[in-house]
Every structure is written in C-alpha cells, then in structure tokens.
Amino acid sequence: MGDESAGAGVLIEAVGLRKVHTPRGGGEATEAVAGIDFRVHRGEAFGFLGPNGAGKSTTMRMVAAVSPVSGGTLRVLGMDPKTHGPAIRARLGSVPQDDTLDTELTVRENLLVYGRYFGLPRAEIRERATQLLDFARLVDKADEQVEALSGGMRRRLTIARSLVNRPDILLLDEPTTGLDPQARHLLWERLFRLKQEGVTLLLTTHYMDEAEQLCDRLVVMDHGRIVAQGTPRGLIAGHCTREVLELRFDDQEAAAGKIRHLGDRQEKLPDRLLVYADDGEDALKAVHRTGVEPLTALVRRSGLEDVFLTLTGRTLVD
C-alpha cells in the first residue's frame, strides 16, 4: 500500500501526465492529455474546468485507475495506478457522466447490491444504506424502483451509491449535466456537505457557476493542456477586470469601432460585445456618451467563463 503522508496530505499527484489514443487498426494517434501537472490535497474540492474534448474526463479515468497512463507520472493515495489499480479503486468513489443504476431494482436494493461488491458485511451494508438514503434525501423513495425517479433523484442515488465504501476520494464527472436548476442546487448542497465532512472531491465540469460554487482550487483545461490554475477567485482576479459590460447592437461591427477605446479590453462574440472594466456602470455611461445606443446592456461580475475567454479566445461552449 502507498504512503500518502510523504506528500503532506497530497492524495493525487500528476507530473507531466499524458494520454495518447491510438485508433484500433492503425491510424494517427491523438494526444488527449498533453503533459499536465497538478496536486490534490486531502479534504479539498479540486476541479477540472473546460469545454468538451479538453481532456477532463480522460484525466479522471487515469486517476480512477481504469485507463492506463501514456506518459509522465501519476500517484493516487501514494500508489501507482499501473501496479496498484485494485487497491486504488477500492478506496475511490466514482460518479460517471451517465448513471449506471439498475433500474429494475429498488433504490435501497441498488445500495445493498453495490455494497456487496466491496465485500462488506451485510449488516454494515444495511446500516450504510440507511445512512446514505437519508444523506441523498431519498428515504421516502427507498422501496420504489429506480425507473420511477426523476433525473435529480437518480443523480443523488448515484452519488450515495459511490459512498457505500466510505471512499477517501470521490470522483465526479460532470455531476449535474442535464439537471434543472433546482436539482443542481440540491446536488451542490449535498456535495458541499460531503466536503465539510472531510471527503476529498475531484470533479470535472463545463459549468462556470458549478466550479465557483464547489471548488477550492481548479485547473482550466483546453486541448489537453492546463492553461491556468488556482482558486476561482484568484483566477478571476488575475485574468479579468472586476466587472463585464455585455452589449448587443443592430450593427455590432460599426458599434465596436466607435467604442473600441472603452474599458480595459473587449471581446467580440457572435451575438454580443463584452467590455471589461472595473466599473461596468461607468463603462455603460461612456458608451452612451459616444452616441451609440445598444439594444440591450447588462453589467455583471467577471467569472470563470471570462477567464477561459481571455486565455483562449473562445467560450466554454464553443
């Protein structure tokens, strides 16, 4: 078994981590993860933020010891996934993008059956299932079949199931994709509670608000590389102004030319123009003084979407 204490509470450490996909039957290999470095400490929520195809899920699969490393080094709980895969997986909880619940079983039965995979005593599994049903707010659904649950309930059950073995690290791959706002906020509250209880969270997301809500630290990924890392607040402060003025015009090109001197910088998107300024209202007054009248104007605080746009010139949903 590994000794994670050597890294002063570092549960995951990657140095120059690479993943190369080679198509079956030949063809050109593609580098999905292109030499990244990161550390995850005990008790923190660490995020991978980026668009689809950035390498987030590929990195997660290597950490989960289900996809071999192509290059660099990776240690999870002080162990090498190549040689200690089963030992690592026994101490992880995993929440994949797609739910893999058994829809023909009841909610409680899903927890009981999953607990047996870890060789836990039946009495312990039953006790753990009761605790997790309460955690997931599914006590009143315990004897219903999974197929009767809403999307948010299924997601909470998937997370509850991943906690049966009391994992050291919980891996969450796009945990709230496809959920409505109310279900997302309830799930965030459950994950925040887990973090308070000392569970280390590793998650991928392309939702800026999710990363800001849940992550103590994060890396921003694009095309298999890390383009920035830090705390959400630190990344925003380091790469953006305090506020952003979003403007829409009938003739965006003409308007952009007239106000190009305003703000610290500007970004042109297909449907709007962004003016970065520490005081968005002052920037809007300056726009009006030029004689240009926007169709709509919105002042908001800068966020992680703006960090990504600043670093790559693209939005997270491009």
Q: Topology, pairings included?
A:
Layout: E1 10-21, E2 30-41, E3 45-49, H1 56-63, E4 71-76, H2 81-89, E5 92-95, H3 107-116, H4 122-135, H5 151-162, E6 169-173, H6 181-196, E7 200-205, H7 208-214, E8 217-222, E9 225-230, H8 232-239, E10 243-248, H9 252-258, E11 265-268, E12 273-277, H10 280-289, E13 296-301, H11 304-312
Parallel strand pairs: 3-7, 3-8, 5-6, 6-7
Antiparallel strand pairs: 1-2, 1-4, 8-9, 10-12, 10-13, 11-12
Helix pairs in contact: 3-4, 5-6, 8-11
Membrane topology: Peripheral membrane protein
Keywords: Antibiotic resistance, ATP-binding, Nucleotide-binding, Transport
InterPro entries: AAA+_ATPase, ABC_transporter-like_ATP-bd, ABC_transporter-like_CS, ABC_transporter_ATP-binding, P-loop_NTPase
Report on the structure:
With 318 residues, the protein is α/β, with parallel strands linked by helices. The chain has two domains: 4-229, 3-Layer(aba) Sandwich (Rossmann fold), CATH 3.40.50; 241-301, UreE, C-terminal domain (Alpha-Beta Plaits), CATH 3.30.70.790. The protein is built from eleven helices and 13 strands. A six-stranded mixed sheet has the order 5-6-7-3-8-9, with helices on both faces. Strands 11-12-10-13 form a four-stranded antiparallel sheet, covered by helices on one side. β6 (169-173), α6 (181-196) and β7 (200-205) form a beta-alpha-beta unit. α5 (151-162) packs parallel to α6. The longest helix has 16 residues, at 181-196. The model has no long low-confidence stretch (mean pLDDT 92).
Compact description:
A hairpin with an 8-residue loop joins β1 and β2 (30-41).
